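Board notes (copied after class):
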Amino acid sequence: MKVGNQHFRTIWLGSDQRTVNVIDQRKLPFEFALKELRTVEDTASAIQEMVVRGAGLIGATAGFGMLLAALEAEPMDRQKFLEHVRQAGDVLIGTRPTAINLAWAVERQVAAMSGVKKSDQMVEKAAEIAQAIADEDAEACRQIGLHGVSLIREICRRKRGERVNVLTHCNAGWLAFVDFGSATAPIYAAFDEGIPVHVWVDETRPRNQGARLTAWELGQQGVPHTVIVDSAGGHLMQHGQVDIVITGTDRTTFTGDVANKIGTYLKALAAKDNNVPFYVALPSSTFDWDHEDGMKSTPIEERSSEEVNLISGRLPDGQLAEVATLPFGTPAKNYGFDVTPARLVTGLITERGICQANAASITELFPDQSPHGA
C-alpha cells in the first residue's frame, strides 16, 4: 500500500541480504519510522514490544527472524546449526502466544532447513522460505480483497448506490500483514472499484490500534472513515448505520471459533442482535487445524497493565508523551484477545473464497491443508 505516493510493504529484506527492515508501528501515526533488525534478539523484541504486530506480519517477521538465526549459525556443522535455529524458533514463539501465524512460520522454516544437508544451503533455503512467506501473505490478502468485495458490491446494489458503511475492530489492515490487509482488503478493493464505502473505525483501547493505525492507513489510501469509541458500535447498528462488520483474526479454529482483539465478541453479539452480517477475513495460515473448541484451546495473551494505565499522544506543543489515565495505584487487567463463537460469525473471507464458519465448510475449501479430511 502507499505512504504518501510511495509503495511500502511492512517488512522487507535489506540490500545487504543480512538485515530486515520493518515499519516501527509504535510511532504511528505521528511519525513514520523504519527499524532495522539484525539478530534473532532484535526480531523477538520487535514482536514482543509491538514494533510489528498483526497475525500475518508477526508470521512474516518470524520467517525473516529464522533467516537471521540461520545467518548466525552459518559457520556451525549441520547438527549444531539445526539446534541453534530450533532454539531461536522457541524464543520467537514465546513472544506472542495467541497469533498462530508465528508458530506456523517458525515450524515451516525449521522443516525446510532440516531437509537440507549443508549449512550454506540451509541459509539459502531460509532466505527462500522467508521471502515466500511474505509474498504468499501479500497475495493471500489481495485475493481476500477480490473475494470479499463481492459482499460490499452486493450491499451497494441493494442500497441503490448509496454509501456502504463497514465497521471494523482493531487493525487488520496492511500494517497487520505484509500488504493489503485482511479485513481492509475488501474495503480497498471496493474503493478502487468506485463503490461508495465508508468505514467506522473502532478506537480499540487500550493501545488504540484502530484510531492510530487503521485510521492512518485508510487516510493514506483516501478511504472515507470515522473513528468511534469502542462502545459506540452497538448504537450505530441499532440505528441502521452499519451495513456489514468485517474484522480480522489472530487464530481461528477449523470449526470457526475466532480469536481476535479484545472487544470483537461484543461487536459480534451486537451484530447478531441487529441482523448485521459479521464477517471475519483471514489467510489460511491463520487457521488452527489442531483444536476444535476456541474457548478452551486459545491462549489469551495478557499484556502489561501499563497499556491500560497510560496512553500516548501528541501534546499541543507537538511533543509526544504518555499520560496517566487512572488514579495512582489502581490495578488494571489487560487481556489482549477474546474468542467469538462460530455461531455468531456469518462467514469467513479467505484467499480461496468465502465459507461458513464451521468444520465442513472450512475443510471443503481447504482439503489439502486440513488433517480432518474433505
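Comment from the instructor: Residues 192 and 223 are 9 Å apart (CA to CA). The mean pLDDT is 95.
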